[in-house]
Write a structure and sequence with these properties.
With 200 residues, this protein is mostly helical. The longest helix has 26 residues. It is globular, with a radius of gyration of 20 Å.
């Protein structure tokens, strides 16, 4: 069954729609799609939950201010780098604020932070973390697309067998389907997943 939209097409049109700052639906979609990516990235950089949430909000606000000047280019993959530049800058702001607070004795020093070592905003390690989080985000988006296209039951089978790597017989027993249905769901879901991931 052919589908008019891929995740990629949806994402590219979303970026165009964001240029209309009054388009609340587009901004809600943007927030829903990228919140987890940005939050996980900030957490892995060493921020606690509250600070990570603030970095996400500040990043979204900056995207809103700068989106008008952003030119989308699929081949160059500029959006990924553009978003990283913004969130990295926001991390730098947050780290400097924490350092000032620590110097005044308002919070624990960065080295004593409960959540472990905070990575400096200019540390090359941040780019590796961003790439890892971005890849996971692409996988999650492709899986969401599989869920939309193959139906709930087939996605359940696909997820148990392929993603969770459960035994085919166990999956068949647990979901009360035949083993042949497990293999059909694996093949169908796998094709959609690979196609969407390739587009992304």
């Amino acid at each position: 069954m052919s589908q008019p939209d891929s995740i990629f097409a949806t994402r590219s049109t979303l970026l165009v729609r964001l240029k209309d700052l009054d388009n609340q639906q587009a901004w809600q979609e943007f927030f829903d799609v990228y919140w987890t990516l940005l939050f996980n990235f900030a957490r892995r950089a060493g921020l606690n939950e509250a600070d990570a949430e603030e970095v996400v909000m500040e990043t979204v606000e900056t995207v809103a201010r700068k989106i008008e000047d952003f030119e989308y280019n699929r081949q160059r993959g500029r959006f990924k780098g553009w978003l990283l530049t913004i969130v990295r800058f926001k991390l730098g702001d947050r780290f400097r604020k924490k350092k000032r607070q620590a110097e005044k004795g308002e919070v624990a020093s960065l080295e004593e932070a409960e959540d472990g070592q905070i990575i400096s905003a200019d540390d090359p390690e941040l780019e590796r973390i961003w790439d890892t989080e971005w890849q996971q985000h692409m996988v999650d988006m492709a899986l969401e697309r599989v869920k939309q296209l193959v139906g709930h039951k087939q996605y359940q089978i696909f997820h148990c067998y392929v993603i969770q790597e459960q035994d085919a017989e166990e999956v068949a027993d647990f979901l009360e389907v035949s083993k042949s249905q497990v293999y059909v769901a694996k093949n169908r879901g796998g094709k959609v997943f690979e196609a969407e991931l390739k587009l992304l």
